[in-house]
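User: My instructor asked us to take a sequence, write out its structure as tokens, and then describe one feature of it. I'm not sure where to start. Here is the sequence I was given:
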Amino acid sequence: MPNPVQTFLGHVGRGDLPAALDLLADDVLFEPQGPAHLPIYGRFEGKAGVERLFKTLAREFETETFEIRTWAQAGDVLFAHGFMRHRVRRTGLAVESGFALVVTIAGGFIRHWRIFEDTAAFKAALDPRNETRTTGTGVSAPHGS
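Assistant: Let's start with the prediction itself. The structure tokens for your sequence are:
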């Protein structure tokens, strides 16, 4: 039987954000760790905040790969590590990163979500000055370059 995070990610992957939001506690807090000036990082409170985050992610990125490679659980905390690859819609650059996910579950609902990833790669890929060149770790040139 899948855990709530697996179910959540399945809904997100199928583009069913309303079903994903139903798996969140009313007072949920998502905290993607990274530079606060980028719209994909910061504190996203409540279901409305999480919805705003995922709409921003969908607007900025085309997900090519998002896979969990390992799961672990200790009490009400789920841990995962995996790999992701996204293409920045605006620049065409691909960004890839390993990631670690720490999620607290309460009453079967996702209550607190933290993800840690290669923020330097995401920052470089989101920078419009990088549209025509390959940059640092985890960032590759646009399609057809």
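For the description part of your assignment, you could build on this observation: The chain has one domain: 4-129. Try explaining in your own words what that tells you about the chain.
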